[in-house]
Design goal:
single chain, globular
Amino acid sequence: KATVSVLNCENFDPPPPMRGFCLVAALAAACSAAACRGPEDCSMLGECVAGKCVCDRGFTGDGCDLFDLGAAPAAGAVQFENSTWGGHPVFLEGRWHMYVSDVGPCGLHRFKSFSRIIHVSADNVEGPYKYEDVAVPGVAHNAYPVVTAEGQLLVYYIGVEFNPGSLSCDVAKAPEMPSNGTGIINVAESVSGSPSGPWRYHTNILGGFCPAEVAWCQSVSNPAPYQLSDGRWLMGFHGKDPVNNLEDPGMAVGDSFRGPFSLLNKAPIFAKPAPYYNISTGALMPPAEFHGEDFFLWKGRRAYHMVWHSKEPFVTRKSGDATSCGSMAWSTDGKAWTPTPHRAYNGTPQWASSPNPGALSSRQRPQIIFTDPADPHRPTHLFNGVQKCPKGTVGAKDYAWTVVTRFN
């Protein structure tokens, strides 16, 4: 099992607003390694029994903050000629329907020119999936499908209507959408409820939600919607720090799936700078900036939870221990969030067969589905967008695909 090495707050001098946070974090780390006192010490993903965390199925570790993952099919769930970059399936009309970002013929990092949301389907949740149709024409990215309590099919995404005018993979020639395109959150609504639409597009649904005096949420991305029991919607997102250009995670709440939304936190949900846990050792580290993206939001038995793609839960871009992985946090009210000590998963899955891709260069876009009718809170599959190519690769060789990993 993972262990936690506690760095006492006396070993460094955080700014005064962080001292209480540091003390709580240090105590939580100590409890997760030694004796827990309640579900808060078990990441709200388990119960504390006789001083030890008994984790819910799908989670493991001393503090229940690790994904308990099995093997990933080597073939990938969505692996086409064009690169794809994450999404997840929903079950409709007796079949699995998945909405993924098809980033076009020129590799992942040309998504600002060519990305669109495509609809693929399969008989089996793990695929392989076959192409059906285009759900959202370009430029559309960051596919996040939701089936509402009322049975509506929605696909959230970022982007703006844009035609690059050319499929040239020449970086110098292919135009990109306007620079603010990744900062516009939209939702596609299937008018008939059919997996193939027709679609009604509600654009810029967070437009005007950020007060003029709050700088960090003027540009937003990576929508993570969740429908509350009273019909309102909780929306995770990341803004952008105008000074250091790092991501600032936040929460909004809306009256309907398309808003209007209002800002739930006047400050980013993680204090800046904040003490953080080293994802490899569990040691509590001195304050640093948050660096994460690609949020996925769900509600478990005891709390709300988020997972995101992270190089460290809190890190500078030049950190020597940065690696592609996933991190988690939990909240009882959707407003105050507590990061968990360890990385939830690492950069490469355990492959189910050989030959396989081996070690990956990037594993991002975490999205989870829950398909166990006997236990609706149990995660069953994790979907990620992945790559295996050297940093700086351009063109078609900058290839990406979408993989699925089973939870145990």
